[in-house]
Amino acid sequence: MKQYFKIAWRNLWRNKKRTIITVSSVFFAVFLALLMRSMQLGSYGAMEENTIKNTTGYIQIHQKGYWDDKTINNIFSDDGIMDALKGIPNISLSVPRLESFALGSAGSHTKGIAVIGTSPEIESEASGLEKRVIEGEYLKKGDDGVLVVVNLAKFLKLGVGDTITLISQGYHGATAAGVYPVRGIISFPSTAMNNKLLYMDLTQAQYLYGAPNMMTSISIMLHDPKKLATDTTAVREKIGPDYEIMEWREMNPEVVQGIESDNISGMFMLGILYIVVGFGILGTMMMMTLERKREFGVMVSVGMQRHKLGIIIFIETIYIALIGVLAGIALATPLMYYFYLNPIRLTGEAAKAMIDMNVEPVMPFSMDLAIYYNQAIVILVLTSIAVLYPLIVIQRFNVLKAIRGH
Predict the structure, then answer these.
(1) What is the pLDDT of residues 116-139, one digit of tens each?
(2) How many CA atoms lie within 13 A of 212 on its CB side?
């Protein structure tokens, strides 16, 4: 068998031009496919990460019926839930939140806003909220101040140190009202989020809405997102059937649908690329077979068995595929890694579309190993299909005609 590999390798370089053309077609296919797929998967990962960290977490716990009717009365007490979640190893953080609406007022300006009561330390670790402070300072535990998003602060003409008045309806119809100093101004990628959000310490929100030790949700972050289904089941078993447990995909169907539809179009483009490359490889195989038909005839006439000749041709083809794949990976990987560390920042309509989806307008690349072996497998399959033509010809050609050049 070792001799077959030596002969196949020597045969490749007897006609360098033909080999280089075939290897180049494989190389460019792998190079373009890797960059395209890395960019796609990187963008999907960024969209998922922004959605998960800034809003719902991987898993969220609610009172039953809360997701369909988000009122302050559909809340629940901790009742040992946070402690129970600590027993699930893959859970990295559990973020308690109390979310409701209020009328925010400063001077003569008034606007409806979304109030989020949360634990400042846990929230910052989960969503990186502290990094979004562009003016002032972040909240401390038990702080009686608030963080206001940038556009809301502009509308209400608020600065750091000013006060905002909140008026709302509390738990079980109680009046909720309070005056809070602005500790900091924060900014999100999404214009919608920058228009309406206000963050305060969880205990302050519970006091405002007359709901001590109560919350609307617990958002759960995971060490390994691939174990999402297993951890969702574990959470249900830990806390029982009295609560509503939802995964992030259930709570963000628009994001999931957007990723799926874009993924289909991306796979379609990759399919076209590989069809073109497949026909290029097949064309090269046909040209090679016709050029070498006399050679094949001579080899068979001097005693080479047809199936052994077929093995040599198959090994030649695998060599071509491997050289093209490795060259494509070698050239694409540095570019992928550069853009992985330095994502492309988008502008114009593309940036606006991503901002509207609450995603930072950047296009990061992915270094997922699956990208590499998926493209390698596709190329090897295509070359294996293309090599069927010379193998069939070898089994069927007439030796005398082949030697005469017919």
Answers:
(1) 999 999 999 988 899 999 999 999
(2) 0
pLDDT at 364: 84
Q: Is 114 exposed, middle or buried (0-12, 13-18, 19+ CB in 10 A)?
A: middle
> pTM of the full predicted structure?
0.75
215 phi, psi to nearest 5 deg: -155, 160
Residue 388 phi/psi, 5° resolution?
-60, -35
Q: Which residue has the higher pLDDT, 265 or 167?
A: 167
User: For strand 146-149 and strand 197-201, is the pairing parallel, antiparallel, or unpaired?
Assistant: antiparallel
Are 213 and 97 in contact, with CB atoms under 8 Å apart? no
- Give the position of tokens 């590989």: 274
> What is the Cα 402 distance to its own chain's centre?
55
- Residue 65 in tokens: 């019926």
Evaluate the CA torsion angle 148, 151, 155, 159 in order and state its sign.
Answer: positive
Q: List all residues 6 or more positions away from 11 whose beta carbon is below 8 Å from its beta carbon.
A: 312, 316
Helices marked H in 53-171 — which ranges?
Answer: 81-85, 120-127, 150-156
Eight-class DSSP state of 166 = E
Per-residue pLDDT, 368: 87
The pair phi, psi for residue 62, each rounded to 5°, is: -130, 170
Reference 133, options 160, 102, 164, 112; nearest CA is 160
- Rounded CA gap, 373 and 370, in Å? 5
Residue with tokens 């069809």: 275
Decide if 220 contacts 92 (C-beta within 8 A): no
Considering only CA atoms, which of 336, 358, 156 is closest in space to residue 248?
A: 358
Residue 166 tokens read as 């909140």
Between CA 331 and CA 369 the distance in angstroms is: 16
Sign, Cα dihedral of 103, 104, 108, 109: negative
pLDDT in tens, 354-374: 666 666 777 788 888 888 888
